[in-house]
Structure formats: structure tokens, C-alpha cells
């Protein structure tokens, strides 16, 4: 037994006697008869905190990052407003060791509950009605779900270790004791100490150069929820794009990254033209090592992104448009609970495609819409056409909010908004959206509140529009409604034609593919018959070098086809791909395809055991289920 556990047991007993009996009554009483209780936060079933009763005003974080020990240790000092005179403050934690807690400078006896699956351990701190400052001294554990610690050989330059966080959806609590719900906003300052030679960056005002002390100070004056708390530590350098945008990456990656993101400044301008001012000051991007488990994360002021979008031809920068769009939908106007996730992601996919349309033209954004539609169809098929998980409004009670991380909030959500645009007219819908972002800036919104706002702000007396939208079927119904809009097929029709020719044995040399972007290639391959013959695979490979593709989107799809067709020639390249890429979007379908046959499953297990250590804890969790469930 370690001393933290001992202390907690003592704390538990004392608290039980001294505080617990009265505090529940107090809290409940104030909940009943007063308005200071935040009803949005009360709905959130994924926070154990009692922030509905206590305002979490500001966080002062002072932490040291030990790259060798793989541990963050320090203090979180919370400024609170005990608006309901609650008898205790309850914070979310996950695998944190709590050393001490003080309230207004005085040590108090705290209690740390046993861990609840997904949610972690509630930290109970006794407070007084006038309490202002709660300071928690803590250390992270080995099971911190937000943190990925990379050894030098897992980075691009292979010279220094790297750390990054991924706090969405409920992982901030595994590195900061906090009230961890999307509806709970606070400002923060941070002091982060890292080994010299490394730079620390956060979702805050950042610096562009390393310093010799290894101590970095951050300030975020705009209130954000805990899922947007972010930290990256590594050997990174900065290059400016224009006066308010720039890119951070490892030195060996910085030039390529800077080139790829040439148009990011213009993207911000385009986004502003659509839906109003960018409210966060600077917009920078950091390119992380390949183990990053997702495409991008919209951490305010500093988007975290995977290096797999550095394709060398700027063809995958729509991902940046997506993360940038979150500066409005998500970061500015935030889903109240994870059940309302489509309000973050559906709006952002819609906004992303509008930005790309402004920049590249409608025939280009039509391709993004169509690929998204294809994903939606596939996802509904795999979840089940009647599944409640295909509703826009999710029901994640008792479940890990990551269960809601499917294509539904993104693609069904964005297609619903596209439908409103088509039916109401673009001008009318754009004015409505601009007002929506303005009216709800730095606020939280539920699905129900959005639907009311839509009704009063756009539909009004237009009964024809209301009928045409059939909102209930979209929000509280399964599958893809019959009025789902489809994008124009101008460029993909040519791709379909080329694919038909190929399948009718026309040699690739005769197909016109010179102007194709990644999107055309994806459509070309996606719509091939379920399994091509080894000979057809070989013909394609000889002509287009798919096995050697440096484009991760294309490579991943090609490897899946190779497994399906037993095209073993591609396998030697598949292994380094799986060794280096940590993005779940690529890993899950590829391992999943292998798992479909006994021989493939054997290969999947062999490769997974070899490279599991390279994947983020969240990727490991979902892949463990996939690889070991069938054993
Ligand atoms: Zn997103």
C-alpha cells in the first residue's frame, strides 16, 4: 500500500463523519430553490464533479514534465465561486495520485473515491461558502489515458522524446484534477517545466522559440472547457505563415509542413468571411509524430495534427479547415454533453466543406461531400440501420463517450445542415448560422436548445420548410432519412468512367488521371469490386505505385484491398506503415480486414504485438478489443 492510498482511507473516514451527512442536504437544497445551479452541467452524465453548483472560474497550473519517468507532477490551483454554498467541491480525476489539498491555504482532508469505469475517481474536497482557492498537489499515473509518451525512435527526427495530450472527450482528468465536462468553462494560466532542449506548447498564448531554462508560461484568457486543455512537449521549431498563422514541427519536418500549410492564413480569412470574426487571436498548427491517434484536435489557438496529412501536394489540408472551423463550432459554441456531439462535429464538417468550396470551388467540395456520404452509408451499415447509435442525439449514459465517436455526428450531422441549406436557401441559412455563432459565443448548447433556436430563428412560419426538413427523423430517428441531400458528381463521374474502363481491361496507360487529387484516387479505389484478382491488383500497382504510396489515405485503402485480394506483394510495405502510423482511422479498418480470415488474423496479431507499443493508449484500447476479442 502506498502512502497516498493510506491517506485517502483516513480521509474517507474523517470526511464521512464530519462532512458527508450535511453536505448532500445542503447541495440538494440549494439545487431546488435557486437559479445558480447550472442545469446544462447537471445533464452531463460523464462528469463526477459538482460544477453545476460551483463556478470553476480559473485554473493556475504549475507542473513539471518528467520525460524519463513518464510523469507529470505539480499543482492545480482552482479559483472557485461557491455560488450555492455547497459543503464540498468534487473534481474529476483518473489514475491521479493526490498528495495534498489546501483550501485558501489551509490543508484539508480529502477523499478519493474508488475508480468507476471510464469516469475515474471523484475527488471530494470540503469547502466553506466563502472558499475561493482550492489547490491540489498531484501526480499522473501510468494509465493516464490522455498522455502518449514517445521515445526518440518514435518521433520523426529520432533525437528527443515527445509527449502530447489528447483530452477530448473525458481524458483531461487523467492529467489535471478538474471539472471535466464540455459545459464547464474556465480560463487558465500555466507554468510548465520541461527538460532543457525541449519546448512546451499549450492551447494558449504560445512562444515561438525554445528557452534555456526549460520553463514556459502560458495564458488562456478565453474560457474553455477541460477537453480543450492540451500540452505538447518535444524538440519542435516554429515557422510563420502570415501575421496570425504559423506551424510548429520537429526540425526535420518543419519545411515540408510549412509548404503543405501555405494556405492556412487564407483559410482563416475565408472562414471569417463566412461566419464572422475569428475570436482566438493566433491560429497555429503543430504537426505531431505519427503516433497521434486521430487526424487533428482543435485545441484553441494551436491545432494538433497528424503528419499523415503532409501529403506533399496540399491535397489533405481540408483536415486543417475542419480543425479551424472548430474555432466557431465546438470551441466557441460548445455541445452541452457528449450526447450532443453532432453540434460540434456536424457543424464543423459542414463549415469545413464551405471553407474548401470558397478556396477550391464547388466541384472540389462536392468530392468531400460525396466521400463523406459514402462513409455515412458504410457506418450506418456497420452500426445497424435501426441502431439508436445512428440518431443524431446520442444516448451515452453508462457508456464511454468515445462510443459516440462514429461517422454519425460528423456525416449525418453535416448532411442535415446541408439539407437545411438546400431547402431554406444558402443566403438565409448563412445569415442564420452567423447569428447562431454570435448569439451563443462562449456558451454551451443542447440539441433541444438548438432545435428551438432553429425554429424561432429560421423556420418561423414557413410550414413548407418545416415539412421538407423532417427534423425528428434526422435527430431522433435511425439511419439515413430519404431526404438526405447528395452532392454533384461532376469530377467523380469521370473517375467512375475510368474505373469502368479499367474493369473492362482497358490498360491504365489509356486512362486520363493526370489531374486527379487524393479524393479522386480514393473514389477510384473505394468503388472497385469487393475483391480484385491478384492480376488486376498487380496491373494497378505497376501503373500507379499504390504499394509505395506516400499518401497515407491511399496507402491504407490499398493495403486493405491487398489483404482482401491476398496480394502479398504489398505486405512488406504494410508493416512499416503499421509500425509508424498511430491514427485509429487507418489502423482499425486495416487490422479489421486482416481479422476476417484465420490466416489474416494470425498476421494481425503478430504485427499488433510488435507495434502495439507505438500506439496511443486510446488506440490500444480499441485495437485490443478488435484483435483479442476473437481469440
Ligand atoms: Zn472535429
Could you walk me through the main structural features you see in this protein, from its secondary elements to its overall organization?
With 631 residues, this protein is of the alpha+beta class. The chain is 41% helix and 19% strand. The protein has a 7-stranded mixed sheet with strand order 5-4-8-2-1-11-13, with no helix packed on it. The chain has a 5-stranded mixed sheet with strand order 15-16-17-19-18. A hairpin with a 4-residue loop joins strand 18 (296-297) and strand 19 (302-305). Bound molecules: zinc ion (ZN).
The CATH architecture classification of the largest domain is: Sandwich
- The dominant shape is globular
Number of strands: 21
Counting structural domains, the number is: 3
The CATH homologous superfamily of the largest domain is named tricorn interacting facor f3 domain
- Top-tier CATH class of the largest domain: Mainly Beta
If helices are DSSP runs of H or I spanning 4 or more residues, what is the number of helices? Answer: 20
Ligand names: zinc ion
What percentage of residues falls in helices of 4 or more residues? 40-55%
Assembly form of the protein: single chain
Q: Roughly how many Å is the radius of gyration?
A: 25 Å
- Which blocks of ≥5 consecutive residues have pLDDT under 50? 1-34
* Helix/strand/pairing category: alpha+beta
Strand content: 15-25%
Distance between the termini: 35 Å
Amino acid at each position: 500500500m502506498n502512502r497516498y492510498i493510506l491517506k485517502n482511507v483516513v480521509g474517507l473516514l474523517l470526511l464521512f463523519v464530519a462532512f458527508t451527512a450535511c453536505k448532500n442536504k445542503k447541495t440538494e437544497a440549494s439545487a431546488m430553490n435557486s437559479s445558480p445551479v447550472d442545469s446544462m452541467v447537471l445533464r452531463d452524465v460523464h462528469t463526477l464533479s459538482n460544477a453545476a453548483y460551483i463556478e470553476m472560474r480559473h485554473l493556475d497550473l504549475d507542473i513539471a514534465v518528467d520525460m524519463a519517468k513518464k510523469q507529470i507532477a505539480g499543482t492545480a490551483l482552482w479559483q472557485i465561486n461557491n455560488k450555492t454554498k455547497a459543503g464540498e467541491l468534487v473534481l474529476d480525476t483518473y489514475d491521479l495520485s493526490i498528495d495534498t489539498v489546501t483550501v485558501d491555504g489551509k490543508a484539508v482532508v480529502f477523499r478519493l473515491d474508488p475508480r468507476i469505469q471510464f469516469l475515474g475517481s471523484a475527488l471530494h474536497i470540503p469547502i466553506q461558502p466563502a472558499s475561493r482557492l482550492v489547490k491540489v498537489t498531484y501526480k499522473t499515473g501510468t494509465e493516464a489515458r490522455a498522455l502518449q509518451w514517445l521515445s526518440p525512435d518514435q518521433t520523426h527526427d529520432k533525437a528527443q522524446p515527445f509527449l502530447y495530450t489528447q483530452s477530448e472527450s473525458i481524458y483531461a482528468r487523467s492529467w489535471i484534477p478538474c471539472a471535466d465536462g464540455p459545459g464547464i468553462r474556465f480560463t487558465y494560466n500555466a507554468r510548465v517545466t520541461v527538460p532543457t532542449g525541449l519546448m512546451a506548447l499549450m492551447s494558449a498564448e504560445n512562444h515561438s522559440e525554445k528557452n534555456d531554462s526549460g520553463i514556459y508560461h502560458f495564458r488562456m484568457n478565453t474560457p474553455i472547457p477541460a477537453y480543450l486543455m492540451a500540452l505538447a512537449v518535444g524538440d519542435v521549431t516554429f515557422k510563420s505563415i502570415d501575421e496570425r498563422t504559423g506551424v510548429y514541427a520537429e526540425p526535420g519536418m518543419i519545411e515540408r509542413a510549412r509548404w503543405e500549410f501555405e494556405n492556412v492564413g487564407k483559410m482563416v480569412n475565408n472562414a471569417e468571411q463566412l461566419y464572422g470574426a475569428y475570436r482566438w487571436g493566433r491560429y497555429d498548427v503543430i504537426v505531431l509524430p505519427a503516433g497521434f491517434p486521430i487526424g487533428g484536435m482543435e485545441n484553441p489557438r494551436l491545432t494538433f495534427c497528424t503528419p499523415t496529412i503532409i501529403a506533399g501536394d496540399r491535397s489533405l489540408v481540408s483536415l486543417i479547415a475542419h480543425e479551424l472551423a472548430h474555432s466557431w463550432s465546438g470551441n466557441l459554441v460548445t455541445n452541452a454533453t457528449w450526447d450532443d456531439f453532432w453540434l460540434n462535429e456536424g457543424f464543423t464538417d459542414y463549415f469545413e466543406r464551405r471553407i474548401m468550396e470558397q478556396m477550391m470551388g464547388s466541384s472540389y467540395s462536392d468530392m468531400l461531400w460525396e466521400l463523406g456520404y459514402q462513409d455515412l452509408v458504410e457506418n450506418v451499415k456497420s452500426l445497424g440501420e435501426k441502431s439508436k447509435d445512428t440518431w443524431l442525439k446520442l444516448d451515452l449514459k453508462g457508456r464511454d463517450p468515445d462510443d459516440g465517436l462514429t461517422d454519425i455526428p460528423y456525416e449525418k450531422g453535416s448532411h442535415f445542415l446541408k439539407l437545411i441549406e438546400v431547402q431554406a436557401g444558402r443566403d438565409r441559412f448563412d445569415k442564420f448560422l452567423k447569428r447562431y455563432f454570435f448569439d451563443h459565443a462562449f456558451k454551451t448548447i443542447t440539441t433541444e436548445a438548438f432545435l428551438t433556436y432553429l425554429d424561432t430563428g429560421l423556420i418561423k412560419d414557413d410550414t413548407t420548410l418545416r415539412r421538407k426538413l423532417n427534423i425528428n427523423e434526422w435527430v431522433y430517428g435511425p439511419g439515413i432519412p430519404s431526404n438526405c441531400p447528395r452532392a454533384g458528381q461532376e469530377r467523380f463521374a469521370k473517375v467512375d468512367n475510368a474505373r469502368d474502363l479499367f474493369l473492362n481491361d482497358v490498360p491504365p496507360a489509356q486512362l486520363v488521371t493526370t489531374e486527379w487529387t487524393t479524393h479522386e484516387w480514393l473514389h477510384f479505389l473505394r468503388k472497385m469490386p469487393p475483391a480484385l484478382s491478384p492480376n488486376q491488383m498487380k496491373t494497378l500497382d505497376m501503373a500507379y505505385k499504390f504499394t509505395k504510396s506516400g499518401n497515407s489515405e491511399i496507402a491504407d485503402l490499398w493495403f486493405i484491398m491487398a489483404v482482401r485480394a491476398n496480394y502479398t506483394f504489398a505486405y512488406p510495405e504494410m508493416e512499416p506503415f503499421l509500425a509508424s502510423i498511430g491514427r485509429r482511422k487507418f489502423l482499425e479498418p486495416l487490422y479489421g480486414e486482416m481479422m476476417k480470415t484465420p490466416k489474416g488474423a494470425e498476421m494481425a496479431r503478430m504485427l499488433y504485438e510488435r507495434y502495439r507499443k507505438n500506439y496511443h493508449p486510446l488506440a490500444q484500447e480499441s485495437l485490443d478489443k478488435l484483435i483479442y476479442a476473437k481469440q
